[in-house]
Structures are given as structure tokens and as C-alpha cells.
Amino acid sequence: MGSAAPGSDYRPRVLVVEDETAIVEAVRYALDLEGFQVASATNGREGLEAARRWSPALVLLDVMLPGMSGLDVCRQLRRESDVPIIMLTAKEGEADKVAGLELGADDYMTKPFSMRELVARVRAQIRRSAKSGALADANEILRGGSIELDVDAHEVRVEGHPVPLRPKEFDLLESLMRRKGRLATRDALIDEVWGPEYFGATKTLDVHIKRLRQKLDPSGTRQILTVRGLGYKFVDEPA
Ligand code: CA
Q1: What is the DSSP pairing of strand 13-17 with strand 58-62?
Q2: DSSP 187-230
Q3: Pairing, β 107-110 against β 58-62
Q4: 29-67 pLDDT, tens per residue?
Q5: What is the DSSP letter of 98?
Q6: How far away, in angstroms, is 155 Cα from ligand 1 center?
Q7: Cα-based distances in Å from 39 to 21, 29, 42, 59, 85
Q8: Sequential DSSP letters for 119-180
Q9: Mind listing the domains of the chain with CATH numbers?
Q10: Which of 16, 23, 72, 85 is most buried, taking the most CB atoms under 10 A from its CB?
Q11: Distance between Cα 69 and ligand 1 center (Å)
């Protein structure tokens, strides 16, 4: 599995093992927009082969597959690798979720699921596995002034108090804090948070920065500085 170096042209690979074409296409579209490479397989054996050959960063695995079931694929995959696996289960398949997790799946999603939710879970799993590969179990906490960002717990605290952030806000703050004291260009931030394939308005970035500032410090002293025409900079001391 490749390392998830952000900011490069690295596009994480996601393998979708699912026999329902409509779901495969919707997932492919959503993940592609977010900067992932997507391959698909329509049955378990193909899925296993693709996982071995293509070395995906994550596998989305349907439980109900023709022939070899998703649970059997999960069991076999787990014997061979630590690739994160998200199971896709039917609403009534409560037992499948438990079985999947017991067999070593990392997460599951119940159909029908929103693509936004899917993308968030995929990102979270890939981030987690990239980290555990690189740093074993080190619990990484980024600090700057009164702000703490706990990468693994996915939690932000200001003066020790948790501040709930949306997924993109969290990713954005993480990108900024990893460059503490240095310029984070608009391109780099958009690339890391929304993915290199993102062609939306760059105003989205400013809106998220604004919300972050409001949430992190409603009173107005600021640790996220605007670098005019270039991007933003996170600093220890409020300006
Ligand atoms: Ca299916």
C-alpha cells in the first residue's frame, strides 16, 4: 500500500466490490470527484484478485454478492492484508454488520447511504490506516496556542474544551496546523481537503475558514491569518 502523502498527485485507490451497477456507478462518481481512483469488481473472486493485484488503499465490500459472499471475501482479505474494509450491508442485515466487524472489517454502511457520508468514512479509514502504518499507535496531537487537534480521536479542543467541527473543517484545520508558522497556499489546502479533482468555487475555502475562525474563537483573536492573494497561515499566538 502506498503512503498517503497529501499535496502530491497521489490519488488513493479504492476498490468497490459490488454487483449492483447503479451503486458502483454512484460510488465511482462520488469518489472520483473527491480525488480517489476507483476500480470495481462484481463478484467476490474478482474482488479478491483485484485487491491482490491493484493494492487498493481501501476496499468497499458488499455483503450480498453472487457466488462467494462478501463475508467470505472479508475473511480471506483479512488473512492477507491490513487494507481497511468498509462493508456495505442491507438495512435488514443486522447480523451481517456484526459478522463483518468480527471478521475484521473496519466499518460498515447500511444501504441506502449518502455519498457524502461514504466519502467521509472512506477518508477517515484511509487516514487512520496511513497513520497506523507510519507511526504504529502513536496518538498524534497537533498543538498551537490554545488549540489542540487530536488526529486519531478526531477531536479539536480550545483551552481544553471540545469544539465540534464538521469533517471538512477538521481536515482544513489539520492541514493548516501541519504547516504551523508557514504559508498554506490556497491550492494546497483545496488539494488536501477537497481533493485534486475539485473544481468548485474557491470561495468554498474562504467560507470554511470563516466558519473555523468563528468556532475556534468567537471573541475575535485569531490564529488563522489571511495571507493576501496567496492563502492562509496558522500561528501559535493570536494576531
Ligand atoms: Ca449486492
Answers
A1: parallel
A2: HHHHHHHH-TT--S-THHHHHHHHHHHHHH-TTS--SEEEETTT
A3: unpaired
A4: 999 988 899 999 999 999 999 999 888 999 999 999 998
A5: H
A6: 35
A7: 13, 11, 10, 10, 15
A8: HHHHHHHHHHHHHHHHHTT---EEEETTEEEETTTTEEEETTEE----HHHHHHHHHHHHTT
A9: 13-135 (3.40.50.2300), 141-234 (1.10.10.10)
A10: 85
A11: 9
Contact 110, 89 (CB under 8 A): yes
**pTM assigned to the model:** 0.55
Please say whether the beta carbons of 36 and 122 come within 8 A.
yes
Q: How far is the CA of 114 from the centre of ligand 1 (A)?
A: 17
Is 46 in a helix, a strand, or coil?
helix
Distance, CA 44 to ligand 1 centroid (Å)? 10
Distance from Cα 65 to the centre of ligand 1, integer Å: 5
